[in-house]
Each structure stands twice: as C-alpha cells, then as structure tokens.
Amino acid sequence: MKTLTDQLAQYAAYHRDPRNIATHFAGIPMIVVAVATLLSRPGVDVAGLWLTPALGVTALTVAYYLRLDLRYGAVMAVVMALSLWLGHWFAGQSTALWLIGGVGLFLVGWVLQFIGHFYEGKKPAFVDDLMGLVIGPLFVVAEAGFALGLRDSERQRIEARVGPTRRRGPTANA
Fold this sequence. Notes:
This protein is mainly alpha-helical. Helix content is about 70%, strand content about 5%. It is built from seven helices and two strands. It has a two-stranded antiparallel ribbon. Helix 1 packs across helix 6, helix 2 (about 20-40) runs antiparallel to helix 5 (about 95-120) and helix 3 (about 55-70) packs antiparallel against helix 4 (about 70-90).
C-alpha cells in the first residue's frame, strides 16, 4: 500500500497552480456531498437503522484514510460524517430536491474541477489513477492544514517530490 506521502505527492503533481487548488476547495466538497446525497436514497431498515450505499462507501473510505494516517483519518472521519449527514438530509426531501441537490452539486463541483485544471494545464489526477477520486478530499484537508502551518514536515516531503505550489504574479516560479 502506498504511504500518505506517496498518495498526496502523486495527487499534488497534478495540482501545483493555486487557482486549481482553490477550485478544488469548493468543487471537491460539492462532489463528496453529491455522492453522499445520491447514495443515501436507496437503503434498507435494519433494526431501526437506515443502511445505505452512502454509509458503506463512507465507512470504507474513512477506514482507508485512517490506515494512511490516524490524524488525517480522524479529521476525514468528521468531514465525511458531515457529508453523510448532508446527503441523508437531501435524501429525506422530495425526489425533486434530492435530485436537484445531488445532481446539481455533482455537476457544479465537476465544472469547478475542470476550470481549475484548465488553469493548471494538466488533466485531473483520476484520469491516470482512479484512487485520485478518493485522495482528492484528503488533499483538500491537507492543503487547508498546510495553509494553517500544520504538518509542515509532510508538506516538505510532498514538495521535495513534486515542487512547491506555483506562485502567481511578478515573483512567480518558473
């Protein structure tokens, strides 16, 4: 299994432009909530607990994040639980609102992703490795932490492999 640094560095190689990273801060959460929404409607009642594909996907994804890194895994468990809660809320609404919420968030989220990759000049990471779809939310959380000065040693290990995030303006990286 790849390490946390392996996964984040591979994903980061496709995301060095700050405009691309910025679009991911909005687009990826929208996609995660959309998937949770769309997978929350089908389900089965087991002893008073509503079991859905969204719950299963979330549990597997969080288990993978925890295996990669306990600290990030704990943060991702909270993020994914909130997404699952929102998805479940949408699923409890009318069919029209459920579909508008799920499909609408999914489409807008992907439009933002592709706008970011236009700026980046590179295809999305999942085109070469489907694990990019799982690592994307973790990348956003990691980048938020890096921006707050957290886990600097992890940021340095990633940048040693793929280089720093490009800067914009007169002092831009070559």
